[in-house]
Amino acid sequence: MRSDVFTTEPLAVPGGTETVLRGGRHLFPLLPAALHGVRRIGVIGWGPQGRAQARNLRDSLAGTEVRVAVGLRPGSASADDARAHGFTEADGTLGDWLAVAAESDLVILLIADAALAAHHEELFAVLKPGATIGLSHGFLLGHLRATGRDFPAGHPVIAVCPKGMGDSVRRLYEQGATVNGAGINASIAVHADPDGHAGDRALAWSVALGSPYTFATTLESEYRSDVVGERGILLGAVHGLVEALYRQFLLDGADPVTAYERSCEAVTGPIAHTISQAGLRAVRDAVADTELFDRAYAATYGPAREILAEIYDEVADGTELRSVVLADARLATRPMSRIGGSPMWAHGDAVRARRGTHEAVIDPVTGGMFVATMVAQVDEFAERGHAWSEIVNESIIEAVDSLLPYMHARDVAYMVDNCSRTARLGTRRWGPRFQAAYEQIALPALAAPADPELVHAFLDNPVHEALAAAAALRPSVDIAV
């Protein structure tokens, strides 16, 4: 990562250093220069990311000559909401998606993955010569490669990928009005740079979104880690884990509310908070029975790693991406059913009502199994060559500082039923696989002594060093949910 406008800094990670840009509102005056000739930004789409990013960009660039417009498909049901947030046809900040794309110098494509796969050629066809193509997910690159195509020549192609939900991107940006630096971390990727300014444009976009710090990756690495992570510890694995643990605790004699607290409440509450504030080893330190934690960790790591390796292979070869594209036509007539119907979710309200009078603790089995799954994902990404900034953000920080707090405020099933279609499809496919592995392999092995090599590998894992370095850049406020 290099910049002619911003001052970057080194981040010490295992085996060397990476370069990051620390954000903050004091950098907003540099945005026009860093955008290098961009005078109109078109945000195509008004889903959670489109709604958040368009508003953040507009607010960060207020008082400059750079205008932000939203482009929507004809008849879009989102038009009224966009107008309610100040984007209107009358002032030229709301319009047809192709018209907005044709008039913009930076075109940020934030429609759903499957829709982008279906309609990218229409959008590419209307671009100005030399207009920059912006993405917040590398899915389109995977689709283009799978179909033997590429981005149009002569256009810079960049990505800025916030490591959290759109709602979080906006809420933490608003917190940043009083706490400089509050926001959601983001990665950037420069895929094509014909004019030599793509990197600065990507950094400007990330700063304008309110990212506390920005790290560099590649578009290919981003979509692999992002899609795998959604199916792994961010959504699929955590859903499978809490369902498996809830059932196990009921079999052990717990009442339903207690079983929910020992499983879902422990993961989304004290475990997430402990990792966010003190790291992964702190979860082990916080339990009353470290020997049971170690047995749960050792029983879970191998089965979880096997599934994560399988997911990674299917993302890398395009299988998982094709399944998302195939689902688009099917779901047009048969919407996805919701997954929050299993018995445990009926007890969430009772558990949330007890907060403040009944403090949840970290169950050693829950803690050991969750941390084992998280470390298995970390190790899989490290073996596949991902940078440490990407590993800790995609496998740990996004989980404990964005998604799990949101689940804590609502529940895991609610999160799954209200996330992006790509993530929802992946969770529905892989969550049951994780659940079966936990129930059929990990939990029956709890009685066996912990493999000391696995425990030592956890305690000595280089991820602790990488996470501590990233944590030093953490905003001073917790996520607003």
UniProtKB/TrEMBL annotation:
Q: Does the keyword Magnesium apply?
A: yes
| UniProt keyword Transport, yes or no | no
Q: Which Pfam families match?
A: KARI_C, KARI_N
Q: Where is the KARI C-terminal knotted domain?
A: 218-358
Q: Which InterPro entries match?
A: 6-PGluconate_DH-like_C_sf, 6PGD_dom2, KARI, KARI_C, KARI_N, NAD(P)-bd_dom_sf
The record ties this protein, via SUPFAM superfamilies, to: 6-phosphogluconate dehydrogenase C-terminal domain-like, NAD(P)-binding Rossmann-fold domains
- Reading the lineage from the top rank, the first entry is Bacteria
Q: Which part of the chain is the KARI N-terminal Rossmann domain?
A: 21-221
Swiss-Prot/TrEMBL cofactor(s): Mg(2+)
> What pathway does the annotation place this protein in?
Amino-acid biosynthesis; L-isoleucine biosynthesis; L-isoleucine from 2-oxobutanoate: step 2/4; Amino-acid biosynthesis; L-valine biosynthesis; L-valine from pyruvate: step 2/4
Cite the PROSITE patterns for this sequence: KARI_C, KARI_N
**Residues that coordinate or bind Mg(2+) 2:** D226
Residues reported to bind Mg(2+) 1: D226, E230
Q: Which UniProt keywords apply?
A: Amino-acid biosynthesis, Branched-chain amino acid biosynthesis, Magnesium, Metal-binding, Oxidoreductase
Similarity annotation: Belongs to the ketol-acid reductoisomerase family.
Stated name of the protein: Acetohydroxy-acid isomeroreductase
The beginning of the lineage is: Bacteria, Bacillati, Actinomycetota, Actinomycetes, Pseudonocardiales
